[in-house]
Specification:
435 residues; TIM Barrel; Immunoglobulin-like; 2 domains; six-stranded parallel sheet; six-stranded antiparallel sheet; 12 helices; 29% helix; elongated
């Protein structure tokens, strides 16, 4: 059964109307509890990148180059460590560390945070929000994060650290707080909770989310803490399976795919980077984050990686989904729209599909070319107009117009991954990827 979304633009507008200014940020949870909205109440599609070391790893000139490029490519969100422990840190490119006494959270270095302020404000100038990690915990078994320092500082100093960053950044519009980082809180639970409590003493404006150990969604670790507003999916396993599990949470909570295979590592293929992003949006998320190894750490050659295949493919993905009411898409959970040719659910060829609540549009992504069957009676109107969208080029081609009276097989026009878009023909929608 396709569950309808109860979306009201008027209700969204009333809930979020320009509480803090005329810009889009900070984002809020929408009235359907499945999507984010901006300050005007418009649905907000998170189109993200993961430059974790942006603050510590780049000069201001380099940071502006990165931000401007991502702005031009349609990205609107980035994941960034406020303080970096190992990678490109803890000292920034100007020789400033985050603390005047190394590892002591009670000794913040003003010079370091002046640079951090500049980067975050520059991101806002470029239209981007920052998912800001105040204390990256680090992957288990490594010295990548701050978990040991958190334990040594203890809850009292951790709370003071939270107060410091909460007070400093409460008036920055373009923020979402991201707690943790590659790790569940485990033995540092009390210290992590103290940081959040300290932030909340001063900052009641911004959403909170979390980045946990792989195969753990934020809600798995923090659902009883009372501060989590935005769930995250983090998996290298069956990506669409975990996304659908997060969609089916009761009560619902908006979620994003915050991390999966990074371009440039884990033997990533171009189609893997694409399919996890398409799966995210067709499985009910309010957006997704792309990762790229050279840009995560700003390794040598990161400038060239800005024009990677993945970045270009994400731009094409955004143009497709924003050309249709993506926020009304409901996952085809019981395969009532695409009824055959779905592929293996636990495999990499799984076909994900979603239909808008009014039946006006269906979008189906297939990672591998094959014939599949659609029940056209699920599409509104007397006729459905079909399009093939090529996720590798962004080109859309008409694929015919058909009465909405039965089932029909579709076969893509070539090899590789494809997107089928079906619209109520009477709506006269523009070609997918065009306004």
């Amino acid at each position: 059964m396709i569950r309808p979304l109860r979306w009201s633009f008027a209700g969204a507008l009333a809930c979020t109307f320009l509480a803090f200014g005329a810009g889009p940020y900070p984002v809020k949870v929408g009235p359907d509890h499945r999507h984010l909205v901006d300050q005007s109440g418009a649905p907000f599609l998170v189109q993200g990148d993961a430059p974790w070391s942006l603050i510590s790893g780049l000069t201001r000139e380099e940071a502006e180059l990165y931000l401007e490029k991502r702005r031009s490519q349609g990205f609107n969100s980035i994941i960034v460590n406020l303080i970096e422990h190992k990678f490109r840190g803890p000292v920034n490119r100007y020789g400033e560390g985050p603390f005047t006494t190394a590892g002591d959270f009670s000794t913040p270095n003003e010079k370091y945070f002046e640079h951090a302020d500049w980067v975050i404000k520059k991101a806002e100038e470029k239209g981007m929000q920052v998912f800001l990690a105040p204390i990256y915990l680090g992957y288990i078994g490594t010295d990548e994060g701050w978990i040991e320092e958190g334990l040594k500082n203890g809850p009292e100093k951790c709370r003071a650290w939270g107060r410091y960053v909460g007070r400093r950044y409460r008036d920055f519009d373009n923020l979402v707080w991201m707690i943790g980082g590659d790790r569940n809180p485990e033995k540092a639970r009390e210290d992590v909770d103290a940081i959040v409590a300290g932030i909340q003493e001063y900052d009641y404006r911004h959403l909170f989310t979390a980045h946990c150990h792989p195969e753990n969604s934020a809600i798995d670790q923090y659902k009883n803490d009372g501060w989590l507003n935005l769930n995250t999916t983090y998996t290298y396993n069956i990506v669409h399976g975990m996304l659908l599990a997060d969609y089916n949470r009761v009560p619902p909570m908006p979620f994003i795919l915050t991390e999966s295979t990074y371009e440039g590592e884990h033997n990533a293929s171009a189609v893997q980077v694409r399919r996890q992003a398409y799966w995210a949006l067709l499985c009910g998320s309010t957006g997704q984050m792309m990762g790229n190894r050279p840009i995560w750490l700003f390794d040598p050659g990161w400038q060239a990686a800005l024009d990677s295949t993945g970045a270009q493919d994400m731009s094409r993905l955004k143009t497709l989904f924003t050309s249709r009411p993506w926020y009304q898409l409901v996952p085809d959970l019981k395969h009532e729209v695409v009824v055959d040719g779905l592929g293996e659910f636990r495999g990499l060829d799984y076909l994900a599909a979603a239909r808008t609540e009014d039946g006006a549009t269906v979008i189906a992504y297939l990672p591998t070319a094959r014939t599949f069957t659609v029940d056209l009676t699920k599409i509104a109107g007397n006729a459905a107009k079909a399009w093939w969208f090529n996720p590798r080029t962004g080109k859309s081609d008409p694929a015919g117009e058909f009465p909405t009276t039965g089932k029909k097989q579709f076969t893509p026009p070539g090899d590789g991954d494809w997107v089928l878009v079906l619209d109520d023909a009477s709506r006269k929608a523009a070609a997918p990827g065009h306004s």
